[in-house]
Amino acid sequence: xxxxxxxxxxxxxxxxxxxxxxxxxxxxxxxxxxxxxxxxxxxxxxxxxxxxxxxxxxxxxxxxxxxxxxxxxxxxxxxxxxxxxxxxxxxxxxxxxxxxxxxxxxxxxxxxxxxxxxxxxxxxxxxxxxxxxxxxxxxxxxxxxxxxxxxxxxxxxxxxxxxxxxxxxxxxxxxxxxxxxxxxxxxxxxxxxxxxxxxxxxxxxxxxxxxxxxxxxxxxxxxxxxxxxxx
Length: 231
What we know:
- The structure is a single chain.
- This protein is α/β, with parallel strands linked by helices.
- It has a domain at 99-163.
- It is 32% helix and 27% strand.
- It has a six-stranded mixed β-sheet with strand order 6-7-8-3-9-10.
- β1 and β2 form a beta hairpin.
- α3 crosses α4 (119-132), α3 runs parallel beside α5 (148-160) and α5 (148-160) packs parallel to α6.
- The longest helix has 16 residues, at 178-193.
- The protein is globular, with a radius of gyration of 17 Å.
């Protein structure tokens, strides 16, 4: 059997606090196959952000095993994690995180330029992503000139610029109206269904329920199989 894109076994992240140890994720074991769209659902404080940070290589496990795209994140050093974040995962944030003084095209190009790629190739790739996302006419605009939905689509293009096999989205529709949220969700779903990327969306909403291959529910750090509509 081929290795899944994401595999966790006994994955645990414990934080030391003045009140004692707190487990953000507890003994989580799950598999996510390549090209699947998976929703991660849970209430505020349930551990969604902790798990997403572990998958993004922004945090490291206390114990257990976590492998993404064949890479062992449990034992990876800082240099390996930096390369992992550049090449393996693209992240879409709720608050967009666009550079306010850079145009849409410049924002999209930035991660690839920081990774050392040549500008002409990066610009061409960025333009293709913007065309797919319906943003070609916005390429020279600043973020403040965009709607919320356009900003989030720009963020999706930026997440794609290094051609990562895994896309992680943290409440990507949280700051959007329902129509824009549906549009953004459909684009994220297409990344899995049309382009074979593995997409994990942390959300408490139901916009993506009908598009998901699976739902994982997290409660007090414990991950279990959920059902669409779970929150």
